[in-house]
Amino acid sequence: MTDRSDAQILLRDPEQSDDLVAACGLPVRPLPPAQPTTGRERRWLDTEHGAVKRMERTLDRFTARWIYPHLFAFWHPYCWLLPRRVAITTGTIVPPRWPRPADGLRILHVSDIHCGAFLRPEVLADLLRRLMTLRPDIVAITGDIVEGRLDDLDGFLPALATLADAPLGAWYCLGNHDYFTGAPEAVLERMRSIGIRTLRNESTVVRGAGKEFVLGGVDDRTFGTRDWPRLLAPHGPPHLLLAHQPDDFYDAERRDVALVLSGHTHGGQIRFPSRGPIVRQSRFYLDEGLYTHGGATLVVSRGLGAVGLPWRAGALPEAGLLTVRAPTN
Q1: 329 in a domain, yes or no?
Q2: Nearest Cα residue to 160 out of 204, 115, 205
Q3: How far apart are CA 180 and CA 173, in angstroms?
Q4: Given CB 3.0 to 4.6 Å as the disulfide criterion, which of 93, 112, 189, 258 pairs with 263?
């Protein structure tokens, strides 16, 4: 396979950043430069299998469903941190496989909201309202809408419905915490009730706002059942793929996907200066930011929410505003 990552360009537009600050009042940081990967990078600890990961997931699921809803019923430290530390990560990317009919697509990338005990609906509502003043063409939500219970969505649906106002809609893919509920179908139904459409091993042709492209979503890597043939069958490889876990990137690249958006890692959530994340959720070192491999591009968001602890340090929350351009050659 020919490595075309040198055709992948990150453009920075200071004027765009100034406009964003004026529009929504949130700080802006540029998307970091692209990191080319070989596909051979591996951590020694398997982030999906093994006794350590099984224990971690069991503890995570138990606390999310039975501890945090009671512990944080009246105390919300993350509601203090989120509006004060969240930033917009913005940049223009040029995936080699991006189609000309979708040139200039503006994507609001939101991931890992984790509605539930750490958040209050009014805090999230104000933040999402600000994000929508950025006027994206489409909203991409890459999993983990809840912390661990279906009831986590109670009170949050009106806030989330704001995202469906984008001209090309809001689209969702399932994450591992959505499966923690034991009722992922019910999560999808609640998303559907507010106009957010879910792609689960599915793709669709999106047309509107002067754009046309194929959008796909793959099921969660750990708890779902990925079905690549079903995803590819109707329209061929998606130009834009929603995949909760970034470790799906190489499978997507082999199937000629142009751009993958992911979350899941939280950027580590807690990181020391000049160090990697303490909790590492990508076996392939795809922890946050922009990556290229072959003809594909990956953007991994730190996400908005928090898990395990109602705090972030060194990997503060973010949403992404991405402008995607078609290559000129």
Answers
A1: no
A2: 115
A3: 15
A4: 112
Condensed to tens digits (0 to 9), the pLDDT of residues 214-225 reads: 999 999 999 999
Q: Which two tokens stand for residue 30?
A: 């540029």
How far apart are alpha carbons 292 and 309 in whole angstroms?
31
Which residue range is the domain that position 108 belongs to? 5-25+37-324
Residue 83 lies in a domain: yes
Q: Domain for residue 271, yes or no? A: yes
Six token digits for residue 204: 């669709």
For the chain, the domain total comes to: 1
Phi-psi region of 253 (alpha: psi -120 to 50; beta: other; left: phi over 0): alpha
In a domain, 70, yes or no: yes
Convert the pLDDT of each residue in 26-73 to its tens digit: 999 999 999 999 999 988 766 566 666 667 667 777 776 667 766 666
Q: Where are the alpha helices (DSSP H) in the chain?
A: 14-24, 51-62, 68-71, 77-85, 121-132, 157-161, 176-180, 184-193, 228-232, 249-254
Binned at pLDDT 50, 70 and 90, residue 140 comes out as: very high
The CATH code of the domain that includes 290 is 3.60.21.10
CA angle, 82 as apex, 79 and 86 as ends, to 5°?
170
